[in-house]
Design goal:
Elements lengths: L2 E4 L2 E2 L5 H6 L3 E7 L3 E2 L2 H16 L5 H14 L5 E8 L15 E7 L9 E7 L13 H12 L4 E5 L5 E4 L3 E5 L4 E4 L7 H12 L5 E3 L11 E6 L2 E8 L2 E2 L3 H12 L5 E2 L9
Parallel strand pairs: 7-8, 7-14, 11-12
Antiparallel strand pairs: 1-2, 1-6, 3-5, 4-16, 5-6, 8-9, 10-11, 10-13, 13-14, 14-15
Length: 272
């Protein structure tokens, strides 16, 4: 992130203490020409996390105002944005004490999806509180680092039951030659994933969820990863090669194109 804003103001060193506690949650999104895809889904995620971690409500109108203010301060109409909800008053010794929440907004250069297909290695791991996009990201980056040391681009998580769940910071979809299949397992359900599923439905394809283990990869012809940065093909998972990933990528690009980019322009923010 190139610049950070907390509650609408540039960040100073007073936030370092709160950062060391590492308790909070976030969402990441892309802004293009002052517009966002799936804003309502990002808000839903932030509201859910705020209720669960702090037992309070997030002021969405204030959040939107701070986001617009941060973008204006950076003179940015295209950007990568991370919105983190935490509390400067949170005390891990008294975690039940009611505290106000704070909003940290990071504004950086717009993301570019990987162009080349990626190779990922399966890793036995299940994220803690996988349904929340919380700030406990150490294992994600640790397993990515290990994967890269082994000559792969990233890590793919497999739970204790042997089911493929998600990547280090991304969801994924498979193609068996006839339909798009989403792995059914405990995972963080991403905004881009939701937009892809909605877009496929608009193209006439109902979502298919299935438990997928590593042996089942023999029946898969392609796979694509997705997150806020975009979508990209997976050409290899371990030793399994996926020759049809580019074809699946083309279909999912069409599906994502069904989601409108809506401007950050009014008090309620853009729609979904």
């Amino acid at each position: 992130m190139s610049r950070l804003f907390c509650n609408g103001q540039p960040v100073d060193a007073s936030l370092l203490g709160s950062a060391l506690v590492n308790y909070g949650h976030f969402t990441s999104l892309q802004v293009r020409d002052g517009a966002v895809q799936g804003w309502a889904l990002h808000v839903q995620r932030l509201q859910q996390g705020t209720r669960e971690l702090f037992d309070t409500q997030l002021d969405v109108a204030q959040l939107l105002a701070w986001l617009k203010q941060a973008l204006a301060a950076c003179d940015a109409t295209d950007a990568s944005v991370r919105i983190t909800v935490f509390s400067k008053a949170f005390d891990f010794r008294q975690p039940l004490r009611a505290v106000p929440v704070d909003v940290l907004i990071g504004v950086g250069a717009p993301a570019v999806s990987p162009v080349a297909g990626r190779a990922v290695v399966p890793v036995r791991y299940q994220r803690e509180l996988a349904h929340l996009k919380h700030v406990g990201t150490f294992p994600l980056f640790h397993y990515r680092r290990q994967a890269m040391a082994e000559g792969f681009d990233d890590a793919l998580f497999v739970d204790q039951a042997g089911r493929i769940s998600e990547g280090s910071t991304w969801n994924l979809a498979f193609w068996d030659g006839a339909q798009v299949i989403w792995p059914q397992a405990c995972a963080l359900r991403g905004v881009t994933e939701a937009l892809l599923i909605r877009g496929l439905e608009e193209l006439g394809q109902a979502p298919v969820w299935r438990e997928i283990d590593l042996p089942a990869l023999a029946g898969m012809r392609g796979a694509v990863a997705c997150n806020a940065a975009g979508i990209w093909p997976l050409l290899r998972i371990g030793d399994a090669r996926l020759e049809g990933s580019e074809r699946l990528l083309t279909l999912l690009q069409r599906a994502l194109g069904q989601a409108p980019w809506l401007p950050l322009q009014d008090g309620n923010g853009p729609g979904a």
